[in-house]
Design a protein that fits this description.
The complex is a heterotrimer of chains A (326), B (311) and C (254).
Chain A lengths: L2 E14 L2 E14 L3 E5 L6 H8 L8 E10 L2 E2 L5 H7 L4 E4 L13 H13 L3 H14 L5 H5 L8 H13 L5 E5 L7 H18 L2 E6 L2 H7 L2 E6 L2 E7 H6 L4 H8 L48 E5 L2 E4 L10
Parallel strand pairs in A: 3-8, 3-9, 6-7, 7-8
Antiparallel strand pairs in A: 1-2, 1-4, 4-5, 9-10, 10-12, 11-12
Helix pairs in contact in A: 3-4, 4-6, 6-7
Chain B lengths: L1 H28 L4 H6 L5 H11 L5 H13 L13 H36 L4 H15 L2 H15 L11 H30 L3 H8 L4 H38 L5 H11 L2 H14 L1 H7 L7 H6 L6
Chain C lengths: L1 H6 L1 H4 L31 H37 L1 H15 L5 H10 L3 H27 L3 H8 L4 H12 L1 H24 L11 H8 L7 H29 L6
Helix pairs in contact in C: 3-4, 3-6, 3-9, 3-11, 4-6, 5-6, 6-9, 7-8, 9-10, 9-11, 10-11
The chains are: A alpha/beta (326), B mainly alpha (311), C mainly alpha (254).
Amino acid sequence: MGTLLRVDDLHTHFLSAGKVVKALDGISFEIREGEVFGVVGETGCGKSVTALSILRLIPFPPGRIVSGAIRFRETELLALPPDRMRAVRGKEISMIFQEPMTSLNPVFRVGEQMREVIMLHQGLGKSEALEAAVRMLERVRIPEARKVAGQYPHQLSGGMRQRVMIALELSCRPALLIADEPTTALDVTIQAQILKLLNELKREMGTSILLITHDLGVVAQMCDRVAVMYAGSIVEEAGVAAIFENPRHPYTQGLWGAIPLAHDEKPTLAVIPGAVPDLSRLPEGCKFHPRCGRRFAPCDRIRPQMTAVGDGHRVACHLYGGGEPS
Amino acid sequence: MFRYILKRLAMLIPVLFGVSLVSFSLLQIVPGDPAVLLAGEDANPDFIEAVRKEYGFDQPLTVQYVRFVSRAVQGDFGVSIRNREPVINLLKQRFAFTIQLSFLSILIAAFIGLIAGVISATRQYSIFDNLSMVGALFGISMPIFWLGLLLMLVFSVHLRWLPAGGSGELRHLILPAVALGAASAAVIARMTRASMLEVIRQDYIRTARANGLREWVVIYKHALKNAMIPVITVFGLEFGYMLGGAVLTETVFSLPGIGRLMVEGIFQRDYAVVQRLRRGPGVDDPGGRHLRAGEPADGHCVCLFRPQNPL
Amino acid sequence: MFVLVALLAPLLAPYDPNEGELGQRLKPPSAEHWLGTDALGRDILSRVIYGAQVSLQIQLVAVLIALVLGTLLGMFGGYYGGVTDNLIMRFMDILLAFPGIFLAIAIIAVLGPGLLNLMLAAGIYSVPQFARIVRGSILSLKEKEFVEAARAAGESDAAILFRYLLPNSMAPIIIQTTLRMATVLLTASGLSFLGLGVQPPRAEWGAMLSTARPYLITAPHVATFPGLAIMLVVMGFNLFGDGLRDSLDPRLKD
């Protein structure tokens, strides 16, 4: 499997009330062809900013990609002129958002919104594009696709709207689909259906997926590899099996400890003490050290680097010798 | 949709009834005997009595009211006491003129207001935004009649580009329309800006951008169509306001519109004219009234733009 | 600032606003007459200053009329609902059916021109706005827990209205009062301009503009300053109202 997308030392900052908020503080990862790469972490850790940075949709002002590289196939996205970047969006890389209720434009019919994007990226005529839209709606298992195409978003349920979003975003067969919490706003049963659908479509179309979520159940079900983010940095990255069986970073362990397990004999859930730090006033050294139960000498002085601890398993923690510059 | 419009129109009936009643009773309290006015101060009592009979001023008020309404419904608004011409003829010309003026004004106001509003919103806090919002503040703070005088001073007296008065041609209407439309342009610009700022933060705008649509398609198609919903309501309000503001504009520029007719009518106590005029707007501007009545969520113009309205 | 000028008018004005020297007619601004003189040789600065007095008087009285009537109507409509509400709001609709200044003109037509009638007309013209705002606010408040609690504690309707609901509706009322000061001045000066309001020779800005019209070409300054005065005062109230809205009611901020 070749590399589809490679993010290198990406820094995205926001300026808020005169303070610099380091939303992304030097993250690096890669997504391979045909895989589902998960990004997990608490709210505000930079997951969504990662997604928007890849599409260069960070609102400016106040946000700005300060430095780093995003290589998509052979193209450096950060160096593209705006109109070439626009041609990538929706065609090569597309994105599904968390809120299906608000992500579709309320004043345009579903078919019209899809047709617009299809016409733009595939150069089809009006009626052909509409046909393509209806076919795509059928592919995401929407019954009476033609009727739905003629409806407005408010006439559809949440689950249906998310199907429409998926159809819209996959209609130009993108190489990479970014799904930002695609099921968080949905009922549990609908969640399962949508995840199943994404899995099937991924297999049929060979699309890679960057899946952003805070739901470890979703990670287990969907992902091939996972990165754990904390306060704008990736703290651990591993294959899905390794990270569930053998989490290394204390933060990852804490996250995993916070899931209720059926066979767990502990009477209470483990909770990570403290709160996520203010991204404009990050602590010295390891960002997690104020909350870490296993901190020791170097933790409040030296920022740990990513170090390999196994096959494709990397972690940024002094416990594993992350102190030495790699 | 059809039933919805019917329902709205039905709601208009009590209001129209009230408007006619208020207009009628207002007239009754006006001091002075219309028959005397009509016949002339020094006419002999018999003649005054005859006039009173002829115009029905001797009948009980209820009878007068019923007659007034039934005639009005048939388009008969009586004869102007002053120049003995059927009021309806006078009204037609003058009203057509004022409508023309108001339309031109709202056109100018909508054009300037929408463009300024959209650009201000897309470049929030830029120089353009600041300037146009200061301009809008001037717009809503300037008295129409003073702005009219200033425009006249600059464009007619000093630059001699446009005539200060007269009517019949488009160029005669330009200055009055600008004077009349300035405040509305300001209101529309503010409203459009606020509405656009709200809309461009929405998720579906992000979706449109994430799908690679051009920025002007995102702004002028996806965002503006949503932002227009509250702005359309303002159009209705402003159009009503213009019919009122026309009184001042027409006076400043000495234009033969309905506003001037009304003021003249008041000064000359020309009953039939004033009576009709006062209820005029209620009848002739049902759309404007309903929007003005502050039901933006379901005003019928609005529903065309907002598909989620249950019809 | 405007209020201060209005109160101190007799001290500030360099000349008697109604005393003209016919030898000094239509003089442009000079050291002697800062803003020049009008068609009767009266000092425009003095007249503008005295005009502030008249304007303030009109604004205060008219807004007070609208505030009291509108607030009461809105409170009763919103609180009692049903038929009361319907009657009141339909009546307000009828008033609103007269576009803009028409209603004020209609009232003047009945009462006749003059300062007092002008205040009445401008006041009544603003009643529906207050009624609507207060009603909306009462409607949203009356279901709140603290009202339920007051009712459960056996408070009378009047007590609930005036001690619980009204104080909590103050923010929109205050904002509306300020903004209305601006609208009322525009309306009143417009009516005076038409000859339906304050009558000359009394110094009122709208009436001053009206008398300045014939001299627009020969003496434009006569028309400039009263209008400028109206605009600045209206702008002041608008700015103040917008500022109040932003600080009192953050939800409305754009």
